């Protein structure tokens, strides 16, 4: 089966700073991959390169078989990128944002689908509201509804639960699970490690722009030297792995002490 996302040797540099260094991984249809790492690890740069927002400095990204650099329109039609700080047109209503998104992606039956998404996101009755009239959590839900509208094969999420209350978080987790069960691939970046541990099939841990661990939680536990990861939570493994990566980088002289 063709991967929904295929990344080979991804690099991103900003001047002398190498934010992403040689990332290679795949995400299968229906798989949820957790992208985790400390602040400044390169997670957001990675997501923006995957989404085609930033051009990679080197390497290749394919979405549903389409090269993001060579066939950007076709690739972007297959994905949705949901940033941690959604931005909207201040003079378009909730319903008009869905209409605009549908026109961009050529979604013909968007009205029925849009109403269903508004109900799922608890935005029914807010169709005529402007972004300035929405709470932080409601804006997040509108961003997600717009992202789900064209039924992408790959969804990239950067801190998707920001601003949601506990009930909203529970419902959002159910929505993400349902998309995965229907065959959509998801890449989820979050500092909420219990959320990542609960939803994700595999984890990609990055530090200093490099992949320092990739696999399921049991596989990563097994990779820990001498069985040190046996029974450890994701939080414990995260601290051990990223601390070890920082020590290694300092030993190479790549990071300040």
From TrEMBL:
<keyword id="KW-0067">ATP-binding</keyword>
<dbReference type="InterPro" id="IPR003593">
    <property type="entry name" value="AAA+_ATPase"/>
</dbReference>
<protein>
    <submittedName>
        <fullName>ABC transporter ATP-binding protein</fullName>
    </submittedName>
</protein>
<feature type="domain" description="ABC transporter">
    <location>
        <begin position="5"/>
        <end position="233"/>
    </location>
</feature>
<keyword id="KW-0813">Transport</keyword>
<dbReference type="InterPro" id="IPR027417">
    <property type="entry name" value="P-loop_NTPase"/>
</dbReference>
<dbReference type="InterPro" id="IPR051782">
    <property type="entry name" value="ABC_Transporter_VariousFunc"/>
</dbReference>
<dbReference type="GO" id="GO:0016887">
    <property type="term" value="F:ATP hydrolysis activity"/>
</dbReference>
<dbReference type="InterPro" id="IPR003439">
    <property type="entry name" value="ABC_transporter-like_ATP-bd"/>
</dbReference>
<dbReference type="Pfam" id="PF00005">
    <property type="entry name" value="ABC_tran"/>
</dbReference>
<dbReference type="GO" id="GO:0005524">
    <property type="term" value="F:ATP binding"/>
</dbReference>
<keyword id="KW-0547">Nucleotide-binding</keyword>
